[in-house]
Amino acid sequence: MKAIKLSERQERIVELVKEHEPITSENLAGHLGVTRAALRPDLAILTMMEVLEAKPKVGYIYSHKPSYSFLYDYINNIEVKSIMSSPIMVEENTTVYDAILHLFLNDVGTIFVHNEHILVGAVSRKDFLKFAMGGTDMHKVPVGIIMTRMPNIVYVKKEDPAYLAAKKIIEHEVDSLPVVEKTSENGKEELKIIGKVSKTNITRLFVKMGENK
Amino acid sequence: MKAIKLSERQERIVELVKEHEPITSENLAGHLGVTRAALRPDLAILTMMEVLEAKPKVGYIYSHKPSYSFLYDYINNIEVKSIMSSPIMVEENTTVYDAILHLFLNDVGTIFVHNEHILVGAVSRKDFLKFAMGGTDMHKVPVGIIMTRMPNIVYVKKEDPAYLAAKKIIEHEVDSLPVVEKTSENGKEELKIIGKVSKTNITRLFVKMGENK
Lengths: 213, 213
Hints:
The structure is a homodimer. The first copy, chain A, is an alpha/beta fold. The first copy, chain A, is about 40% helix and about 25% strand. Chain A has two domains: about 10-65, Winged helix-like DNA-binding domain superfamily/Winged helix DNA-binding domain (Arc Repressor Mutant, subunit A, Orthogonal Bundle), CATH 1.10.10.10; about 75-210, CBS-domain, CATH 3.10.580. The first copy, chain A, has helices at about 10-20, 25-30, 35-50, 70-75, 95-105, 125-135, 145, 160-170, 200-210; strands spanning about 50-55, 60, 90, 110-115, 120-125, 150, 155, 175-185, 190-200. In chain A, strands 3-4-5-6 form a four-stranded mixed beta sheet. Chain A has a three-stranded mixed beta sheet with strand order 7-8-9. Chain A has a two-stranded antiparallel ribbon with strand order 1-2. At the A-B interface, α3, α4, α5, α6 and α8 of A face α3, α4, α5, α6 and α8 of B. Chains A, B: It holds the Pfam family HTH_11.
């Protein structure tokens, strides 16, 4: 899989380097029947893409690490704040039934539970379904009983890379993470919810990255 | 946001082009106090990255489309088959209760309904939760009653780009798509389920793309 399509000549250079490494630019030019100067742009591109490595006084060698670094840079420069969306929040004493209504009305997969915007818990579609399977009356149980409670909630900050959010989502097997800001009121450090990042946000970002514009 | 970090000189060239476009390579070389030949690799990289556009007999202009093309190529070369996972399937007469058990046991978000591997329907966590809200006995209703039925199911083929799968997921607001293969038995064309692609698969792919290896 290649990121930038190499030109035919660039492909040929890579083949020659693989075969003869280390090989000088003079030798490469000789093989290709062109001048050294004519090769310079291609060699610059190939070393910049880390397909080739230039060893001073030795020549070019094939770089055995694939050239993912540009992709790595690209992805790690996207911050959570540029892809996050609004969190849907309820208070701890909201009934499970009302919380599920919020879930449907806003078409989200996770409801965050807050106390004056401070994160106290999270409930997912899966948690709600598990509760519904039990047959207990949804109108009588507050969401605080079935939620995952802090400090057992994985979160990100808005300056974190979107990559980190995606990694936490996969590692912790959750659908959505709250985006928080640290505040210290009354001398106690707490987390204020300011957004959320879900698999939907990551998928939307992926679509945006793949758009041909 | 840049994909490849430009060198200081490349950044300077871009600034000069923005200011003076269209500008010839001679003029650029003059501004920078270097020879035209010395600029050639930088100009080759900048036009290849589509940061600049070279107009024959006019000079370089700044390309107003950002240089996403390499990213576009990269993403559109990833096929569904390289990221799909196994579909969890039940038959149409399975009870809603049993289907939800399958959902939990396999920790998936969508159950596909099949008839001898031919796709007939799909039920999501959201569909199940909506049903559970209604209070009807889950043991008595077959999943065929609540599923989304063909031909109302969006699907992909294993040779499709992962990008197309992500796009369909976002556009149709679903969590998961069946991956199908066309078969024509008894002269009738049908779709055999061979996999699935979900937001989880896309998120996992995004994490893999962002890994520094």
